[in-house]
Amino acid sequence: MGSSQQSGSFGDPQQISSDNVNGLCLAISSSLFIGSSFIIKKKGLQKAAASGLRAGSGGYSYLMEPLWWAGMITMIVGEIANFAAYAFAPAVLVTPLGALSIIISAALAHMILGEKLHIFGIVGCVLCVVGSTTIVLHAPQERQIESVKELWDLATEPAFLLYATLVIVAVVVIIVQYAPKYGQTHIIAYVGVCSLVGSIGVMSVQALGIALKLTFSGTNQLLYPQTWIFAVVVVTCVLTQMNYLNKALDTFNTALVSPIYYVTFTSLTIVASVIMFKDWNGQTATQIITELCGFVTILSGTFLLHKTKDLVEVSSPTAFMRYPKYDGGGGSSEEGTPLKHRESMR
Fold first, then answer.
1. Is residue 294 within 8 Å of 133, Cβ to Cβ?
2. Measured in whole angstroms, how far is the alpha carbon of residue 35 from the centre of its chain?
3. What are the boundaries of the region Disordered (predicted)?
């Protein structure tokens, strides 16, 4: 069975497989495209808001804005690279590398959007890189899958079905009850939907990617209905994420959306992957603890990046965690600055 090889750490040069290397390179390039797309889409949303109803208020005028579509295409390219990465490497390795997109979006937001990045924010970015590197060096090897039926068996085990059910219930509750009331003032409403749906989406993306890889290798998996079920789940999750991510970007500061989205999305994806693919099976306690320490380092970095925004918002230390950029009457205020009349917000 070759258990010694399966349980080897990614950090051991003797255990690095070509699949993991390919997945690593694809994940890094994906972060470059996705990090840039946040800024391009944000510029498009700002232009669209000047002539129509904002996305954060339920408008879709951004669909007529070429700049938003440029950002969307950039994100699609990044997502394609990310999709391919999951076909080669486990989610525990690929997903944490999204921290690179935080650094890129924060730096570009500072230079292009004028969203200030404090020196401690730079330290937070460095912590994200250190944490990601730690996880990569101790990530498990990709699970060997021979058929999409194996993936279906994993997805229909009681533990993962329970997780999926809890996610669906939580998403419905947030969309129906929480988001309409608090979406404009609490970022976790929109980002929470993106992250919860995304964790299921990543599992389906990984399953679909593996199925396509097997198909291109000569074992046709398109004949199985399970492949198409995974494809439908992927499309549904992507459309939902796109909608609520647009709302989050249009309502809150980009340098705030990116790290919070990364933390929640990565946390839930790792949980989903551990449940479905049993990524930690065969790993030693030391390897698992080291991976968790790496993830805590990333959390520390994103928390620091978030809190340092308070240092540049002199008017209120909690301003852009709780207040949107525009008032309910269509006027606007500085990003992160609390509105004088909170009653005007719905």
1. yes
2. 11
3. 325-346
What is the chain's Cα-based Rg? 20
Rounded distance between C-alpha atoms, residue 23 and residue 141, angstroms: 11
DSSP labels, 7-70? T--TTSGGG--HHHHHHHHHHHHHHHHHHHHHHHHHHHHHHHHTTS--GGGT--GGGG-HHHHH
How many beta carbons lie within 10 A of that of residue 346, not counting itself?
8
User: What pLDDT is attached to residue 53?
Assistant: 64
Q: In 3D, which of 266, 248, 264 has the Cα closest to residue 321?
A: 248
Position 314: which residue type?
A: V
Site of tokens 């959390």: 299
Q: What is the pLDDT of residue 328?
A: 41
- Each domain of the chain, given as residue ranges in start order, spans 3-312
Instruction: Summarize pLDDT for 72-105 with one digit per residue, the tens.
Output: 899 889 988 988 898 888 888 888 887 778 778 8
pLDDT digits (tens, 9 = 90+) for 207-238: 999 999 999 988 999 999 999 999 999 999 98
- Least confident among 28-37, 40-49, 248-257, 300-309: 300-309
**pLDDT recorded at residue 51:** 74
Taking a C-beta distance cutoff of 8 angstroms, is the pair 298, 127 a contact?
yes
